[in-house]
Amino acid sequence: MVASGYRSASGADRGDHYADAVLVAISNTPRDYAWGSPTLIADLEGRTPSGAPEAEVWFGDHPGSPAVVHDGSERTLDAWLSAEAAAHGVAPKLPYLLKLLAAGAPLSIQVHPSKHQAVEGFAREEAAGVPRDAGSRNYKDDNHKPEVIVALSDTFTALAGLRDIDRTRALVDALGDAPAVAALRERLADADASAALRTTIGWLLGEASEAEIAQIVDAAASTTSTEFAAELALAASLHTAYPADPGIVVAMLMNLVQLRRGEAIFVPAGVLHAYVAGLGVEIMAASDNVLRGGLTPKHIDVAELLGLVDFRPAAPPFLRPSVVDGVEVFAPGIADFALGHLASGTASDLELRGVSIALAVDGETVLTGAAGGRVTLVAGQAALITPDESPVTSDGGGEVFVAMPGA
């Protein structure tokens, strides 16, 4: 990897000011969560698979797995930013975390809190003395965790939000009349769709017996439906990974989304979701707050989960990019992050806000900053860019995503 090292600042007034403008390589190693794919990240990087599951590569300053800055110091990015903050009074932390995510098996169904909920929940657990590394801890920090994922594989399968309740009722009607299915149908009958879904999910996660869950899953396995073939096939697949887990039935209440390469979804606070299969670029607010709702052996706090979920049925939360001077920007309208997309084949410029991180996902790309910094990236490699190097120019040789603070 070719990196620039430090270069003199341009002197332009771009907000944060560092000792020198920086456009420099950073790197990290994959995290081996059990749900990770053994091949997707390795294939992207053009290397032999390690044989272990490779789930995520984090490009950011999160203390759980900070990237390394290749400027000669080999400091981790959190240490690099802390030193810059101490010396020059700039932001000590990034407001976002950029990831490569490779799902070889389904992730847990989960929801993230709003900022207000995170502040209140974190303070409550701190006051109660719950250790931050405790398995029963719900709030690891006091921040929200909205997120965007853009598909890199040809297809990326996800569950996102609660489906239109009439379609959910039609799916449940197709499952027959076993007693547990009838109990599920009864709970979904409330004329208030949000109330019906809240009651149903509370029952599935907190009250239904293992036998009742198994009966609903068995009914799905024996049902043939052209209209719901994809949902029933997913239920069967989830049952193989998590036998008789109540999350299988929760998943049947959710939007099943098949993203094509380059398509994205935005998951704000309160939206139930789970990534099922595929490779993507993910950007999120810098937080580790996750409340789980099934498809996991980890702790599920049903009452807390029910207090966070937005139970209103809605269409899948697709996020379409805006296009500015030929450059795509996935911007959900929050202050924490936006994600630029520099396509291969055409040279392009991208104006940056704050400290940014570029991640190459295809081909070989040369990035050049306004202050003269230059770095060459191939797929899977990343670079740190300080504001004085904005705008950054891509030579169009490959495909790059650029994370930055939001507007």
Automatic annotation (TrEMBL):
Keyword NADP: no
Its EC number(s): 5.3.1.8
UniProt-listed InterPro entries: Man6P_Isoase-1, Mannose-6-P_Isomerase, Pmannose_isomerase-type1_CS, PMI_typeI_cat, RmlC-like_jellyroll, RmlC_Cupin_sf
GO molecular function, one term: mannose-6-phosphate isomerase activity
Record-annotated Phosphomannose isomerase type I catalytic domain positions: 25-163
Catalytic activity from the UniProt record: D-mannose 6-phosphate = D-fructose 6-phosphate
Statement: the UniProt record of this protein carries the keyword Zinc: yes
Cofactor(s), names only, from the UniProt record: Zn(2+)
Keywords of the record: Isomerase, Metal-binding, Zinc
Coiled-coil portions: none
Top enzyme category: isomerase
Assigned protein family: Belongs to the mannose-6-phosphate isomerase type 1 family.
Full protein name: mannose-6-phosphate isomerase
